[in-house]
Protein: Helix-turn-helix domain-containing protein
Amino acid sequence: MNTESAPAPPPRQLGTHQDLNAQELKLKGFKAYEVDTAVNPGPTYRRRDFYKVALVTSHCTVHYADRSIELNGNCLMFANPHIPYSIELHAPRLTGYSCLFTEAFMKENDRSESLQQSPLFKVGGTPIFHLDAVQAAYAQSIFQKILAEQGTEYLFKNDLIRTYIQLLIHEALRMQPAETFLQHKNAASRITTLFLELLERLFPIESPDKALPLKTAQDFAAQLAVHVNHLNRAVKEVTGRSTTAHIAERVIGEAKALLHHTDWDVAAIGYGLGFEYSSYFNNFFKKHTGSTPLAFRRAV
Structure:
């Protein structure tokens, strides 16, 4: 990252982006806008109800799940409805472009796989792409076409906007290594995809009052109406990791995010993640991270 010789302004938190007509987004399935706004004082770390592709041109840090990624220069950012994020701004204003859309909008008249399977939107994928001048100019031109098109009465404008969004997605995919795109088409892959999507739908935890309804491989297998041995074999075959390992990793990721971004006490976080007693949560967290929840919170 480049550093400036003059002192940088103190970081501020982005709580919400430009005010949106939520009902309009729900009805149309998409909304695009140019971003040039000051920052709201209170941070918001929560799941949105839509997918997002943004061209960010301000110096900021994206807190994405349990990761933090600095953006300095022109960047493409991808976000999905299943992973909460917030933006910490290091400049007076947030600038760029943003396009919000639902999966139903993107899949209209299309039988393509879920967006959740895209390397850009899946958990653990790469949500941020730093652009050079040529790439940034191209991305800006696409956003401007989307903005212009959404205000027209053209009969097939939704198809055209979907094409523009796909162009932005493909521009980012070209920056990914080819092995990222390996797709499995067999029955094991379908079962694994269903399991991973079901796992993601459990998060984020928005209240500590209700415990996770699914905690074990047996719970997920019952929900998917398959034998637990079949689920375990499929997940292992496709991902190389056990069902239990995926569940544990996701729970730990959510625990880190809650410890970092909320003021809930450790016992409440543990209960929300399915641990009846805080000692069980403490032992589980330490086993997987080498640190107690309280020590992790104090360190971040």
